[in-house]
Structures
1.
Amino acid sequence: MALHPSTVIERSGDEVRLFARRTGRWVVIGAETLERLDRLPPVQQRLHRLGLLDDTRDDELLDWVVCRHQATHLLPEVPALWGPVPEAHGSGGHAYVERPVDAVALAVYRAINDRRTARQLAEAAGATVEQVWAVLQRFTAADVQAAQLRPTTPRSDDPGLRRLMGAQRAAHARTDDQTDDRGATTLATYHLDAIVDGRTHFDDRETTVAHALALPHPGLRGRPYGQALREALGWHGPVVEVGCGTGELAAAWLAAGSVPYLRIDLSPELLATQARTAPGSTGVLADATQLPLADRSVPFLLSNEVLADLAAVPLANADAAVADRIARLGLRPRGWANVGSWDFVEEVARVLAPGGLAVLTEFGSPDGSAEEAVQLDHPEVSIRFDDLVAVAVHAGLEAELVRLDELLDADLRAPQLARVSWMALRARARSVGVHLPARAWTRDNLALPFAMEGLQFDTLADEGPGPLITRFWALRLRRRRAG
């Protein structure tokens, strides 16, 4: 049993990537496995189903099902396929390119429905079998990967319809001012100087759950995120918010009634943006770990998706002071020590009034390893929340951890634009000079200034324009009333 002569073979260390030019399918296997292929029938069966072996003739493949790769979309007005370049994969995602199609190729592409065979496409597209085969071989090429041939009909959620064989996504380059000599994250300069467009920052550089869900969404019972959070917390009095994004939470609170609302942020640009979004609020430039507030003066403090921006140090580089703090508080960090978030929780404990409530949300896990999000243009480190709970309790607060989607009573089955389609839309919008906000778009509220066919919609439990809400937690902190 041998590989088909058209197979693309790429070796990297102990692994081998195999790409079937005829079917647009690929796989990564061990180099040793490939050498023992003749003695491994299960592996042979797998490679056969991918069209990688020489036991399948081209005319037999005409009876395989043709599927669209979901990362590629159709621009009907050009007409052209709009698809990613597999080998151009930067920190912001793939580069995209127009691939013009003639009338025959357009008819073939539109006839692909993930159920028809190549022979059946000929009748549906009004083309000859030979024309269909020639078109498909362009669509399944390694530098295109717009279609696949499969021996049977795939599941609609088959991840192979969204993955490309190509370059691994690159990590975003870090500047010297974003880490210190221990490798600890230091983002004061980034927030003070590098955020220059508050209007687009959370669309283009760091989309948050709150930003993605800032429009009324069926997953939040037709409410925007800010309103859903306010109603879930049931707070109607004065608010101190630390790290306020574009001010959408402040606007949601103030829409329910006028209350003193203090915004604390380290970005002058974002403070200005917030002031325009929530003109009834007051802004102060300050660091989250050095709040300009009196002891025990705050009845309610809110901080949404800020913790990961605070300083974190790799455990391997932790100094004696960090090690002593870990031992003294009984912390159990893994990967990174979230020292900045520990500082912030202690600062919250200092300013929280008797009977006061603080709510801090961020991505992470109760007891997993902290990890850096390397695709952002600045280092954010996920939070190990068990350690934050321990810091809070040691500082005299009561602590409760709840999943963010449960706090908001979110319907995770509600639709949103799939990430593969968001990436294509964003790239197309940029190419024609249009700014497209990063929202959890639905079919009902997505209005485009250009036509694009093949958009995919998943659920809030899947990857969309924003991060996965199921990775986010809310830490509720309370100070008991005296007596």
2.
Amino acid sequence: MTKGSSLSSYEQLASQIVNNVSNQRTREIINLRFGLKDGQRQTLEAIGQKYGITRERVRQVEEAAFSDFRKPALANLFEPVFKSISNFFNQEGSLVREERLLTSLTSQENPHPSRGALFFALTLGQPYRRFVESDKFYSFWTNSLIASDKADWLISYLVEELENKQEPVSLNYILSCLKQKKFSLAKKALLSYLDATKQIDQDNFGHFGLNKWPQINPRGVKDKAYIIFKEAGRPLHFREVAQLINQSSLGSSLANFGLPLTKQVRLAARQARPQTVHNELIKDSRFILVGRGTYALGEWGYQPGTVRQILIQILKENGSLTKEEVLNQVLKNRLVKPNTVLINLQNREYFNRDKTGKYTLVK
């Protein structure tokens, strides 16, 4: 069953079943509850206020209606739809995040009546169970309670593994860990479980890490700049960093694996001003000023300090060096003109030049 035919079937079948209800108010309550007319699903509280009844009474009306809907004469009308839904679940490891499930099977953004009709079908189908949003997971659906137990164990295990690792890991690394644990799970199912959890997400390079990590979920200019530097892999001027932040949309990239994107963090939610970027970079020890307005990551081996301080450190570590050796060492750490280095070497308060032409520190 294609998405198009499913979309039509969801709406037509839901309408056909609901129209079998003789009580007008019950029909209206079901239509409102599932957004069958406009795609806007209403809460028990909102519907109760509309009809002057309690939310518990609305729940009872809905429950009674579904008892009738599940009788074979009506429920059997949905068998082709149930087959299509179950096939999708089975391909995804029997557990799918709700938003991705509704989008994948209807190709519609929220709100849309077809999504409400699919929600109706999922509620009607006996194998399907909805788990509400929690601290660990977004709202998700499953057609197997075993799958929900597997997902719960998997995410707990991966969170602990990532806490110990303290850095993002590749999908292959995760699969390797699961293999060592003799935990069998297809790659597509693993991605579906990862999509459903709030605790783990992807960085811009396709690696997985804890959502609370700044390199996974950047929360400010400094975190966004760090991702830009990691992606560029080279020193950048602060103006270029600001420009790249404003142009970028980084975050979870499950779509790279053929899955609809349901998690996304936009780096450019606000325009980053160059001067703000400059001010933030200079205050953060992760970034080293290596040239006029140009920064690099300290983890790349760059040392903090002025050219003179770099010279002192180099000579302290290496003893006497020729002019060429000094230049080579400094230019690994700073994007400056050779003449700037030579001018600093002429400071006799700190540096000596012996008869062989080598430079040492003043004792």
